[in-house]
Design a protein that fits this description.
This protein is about 20% helix and about 45% strand. It has helices at about 10-25, 95-105, 150-155; strands at about 30, 40, 40-45, 55-70, 80-90, 110-115, 125-145, 155-165. The protein is globular and about 60 Å long.
Length: about 170
Amino acid sequence: MTILHWQIGTNIENSLIEFLRDKVSTQSLQLLDVNGVAKTVNVYAGRELNNSWSLPLIQVYLDSKPDANRLEIGSNKRLRSFQVIIDIRTLLPGQETNLADWVESEINDGLTIYDYTPNLSNVDLPTKTVLHYGRVDFITSLPVLSWDDADVYDKNRYRITCKIWING
């Protein structure tokens, strides 16, 4: 019996989340709430919004795998891209654009993609080894329009769509 572990899409998603969490932590990145109190930026995984998540937040998920071009004739190696959505949700108007600029600046030079495998001694801390280096190309970067009765998660929202390219 074979137990299927994380595949490349999940590895890319988790590598990006870990990368952003490390940057947020290293820089002690915070945004102000309506009372002027500093709130740490949170980074979450998943396509579905979870109402227990705390704002401000960066939400990351793999959307699709649009490209898988052969690197050369007769080779099975491919240059593949993975489309990733980064949703940014903040407490105050204007913060979403500033946080989006920060995210784009941080991931612009690419990131290391890790291969995560289960760690039997600590299931919350998978073992990771370097798999590839991912190049980032931005496809879209724009505010998400809200409506009059939008909830707190959708009032100040921004979406970045990017492709992360790897070869192999």
